[in-house]
Write a structure and sequence with these properties.
Length: 420
């Protein structure tokens, strides 16, 4: 529904638009099970006389908050929520907090939570507190989240989930000492640290070791795993994914594979993340056959659905990067056999590498295939790598024969003998 934003709008028009907004809100709040018609059909029947800018089914037509939030116009967001008159709910709250935190305004996000009941009529409970803490910690504002939790401890006593979030937030921020300090306070306060918190600490330690001293990764990770066993905290698949990912980033693929084969000793089994990380690492190490076997193993384990267009593109990019264009083409063929429709990026990657290898015929065939599939590729100039250019044969130097040399030398001796 279009509504003018000019301050010169007549009062009568404001009144009509206010009534229209209330009618629309009432219609949206009706229980869907009480009417056989869908929400879209009811709106089309009840408001057929209204000129609308967007269809009723469009999310923007029933959510005026989103444009202002996406523009990071927080003053307009405040005005929209206030004018809603108690209609705003959990989704509005979640969207507002998410945008505030991502815009780098943690203090405003905390302030929003503190006055959400008074100013906006939103219910403030433990669920909303968890949401704010989670968003702050995910975006590196663990300090603000911890201060908020401690200041509201009398109203909302923190549980283990919130404490795990805080530890994870400090680890995301790369502040290992703060995470360990908070973990110590939790133990002294009678809390138990969960697997999520330990996985975050393990990941933080691994990243710091990769950055400063890769040779300490094994001993530091082993110490954290021992602490988990001491406190009775079970390992899960994410624990192994953290270790395998960091080992692969250090190009220790063999160690990662050994850990992969030992997961069952702790009752854990790989998921799609485990397989994808190992496949990428095997391809990066030019272990092509083992990478193909891991793809087959991933499918047989029931995670073939995770082999989407994005995953296959990542494999092809790695193979092209190590100049294995023929195998990249085989992976491309496998991608199509699995029902993934290749897009512009996949075709452009392979065509660019084929032209670089001076294989214009195969690149042209690939372009024609893309045209048949309806992929909107644009023709552009590709450069051939000088290493793959056909070199011109060098002209052979004429070598003087021994007889010619002797004749010339004899001629010089005869000429000199005349002066003797």
């Amino acid at each position: 529904v279009s509504k003018p934003f000019s301050s010169s709008t007549l009062p009568a028009q404001d009144s009509d638009q206010s009534q229209l907004a209330q009618s629309l809100s009432s219609e949206l709040l009706i229980d869907p099970s009480s009417d056989p018609l869908s929400v879209t059909q009811r709106l089309q029947l009840s408001f057929s006389h209204i000129t609308r800018l967007l269809p009723w089914s469009s999310p923007c037509s029933i959510c005026p908050l989103m444009p202002a939030v996406q523009r990071k116009d927080f003053k307009a967001t405040h005005d929209v929520i206030v004018s809603a008159g108690g209609v705003a709910g959990p989704k509005t709250f979640a969207s507002s907090i998410d945008r505030l935190v991502r815009a780098g305004r943690p203090a405003q996000a905390v302030s929003f939570f503190e006055r959400m009941e008074k100013d906006y009529g939103l219910k403030r409970d433990k669920t909303s507190l968890r949401l704010v803490v989670e968003k702050l910690c995910e975006n590196g504002f663990a300090s603000n989240a911890e201060k908020m939790v401690k200041s509201l401890a009398n109203e909302f006593f923190p549980d283990e989930y919130v404490c795990d979030l805080l530890i994870k937030g400090w680890c995301i921020d790369g502040k290992l000492e703060e995470a360990r300090r908070l973990a110590g306070e939790m133990y002294r306060g009678g809390f138990e640290i969960g697997t999520t918190a330990y996985n975050a600490i393990l990941d933080c330690v691994s990243k710091l070791c990769r950055k400063k001293d890769p040779f300490r990764l094994h001993s530091e990770a082993e110490q954290i795993l021992v602490d988990m066993d001491t406190h009775g905290v079970p390992r899960n698949v994410e624990t192994f994914n953290v270790l395998i990912s960091n080992l692969c980033k250090l190009r220790k693929t063999e160690d990662a594979l050994n850990l992969f084969h030992r997961m069952g000793e702790w009752g854990c089994y790989p998921n799609e993340t485990t397989f994808l990380v190992l496949i990428r690492s095997l391809y990066q190490g030019a272990r092509i056959g083992e990478g193909d076997e891991m793809i087959d193993r991933m499918k047989s384990a029931g995670f073939g659905g995770a082999l989407d267009k994005k995953a296959y593109y990542g494999f092809m990019k790695i193979l092209c990067g190590i100049e294995r264009i023929d195998h990249a083409m085989r992976v491309f063929k496998k991608m199509k056999e699995d029902g993934c429709e290749p897009g512009i990026k996949s075709y452009d990657l392979l065509m660019g590498k084929l032209y670089a290898h001076n294989r214009a015929d195969r690149a042209t065939a690939l372009f024609n295939e893309a045209q048949k599939r309806g992929v909107p590729l644009t023709q552009k100039a590709y450069q051939v790598d000088p290493r793959f250019l056909k070199k011109k044969p060098k002209a052979a130097k004429r070598r003087r024969s021994g007889k010619l040399f002797l004749r010339r030398w004899q001629g010089r001796r005869d000429a000199l003998s005349k002066f003797d």
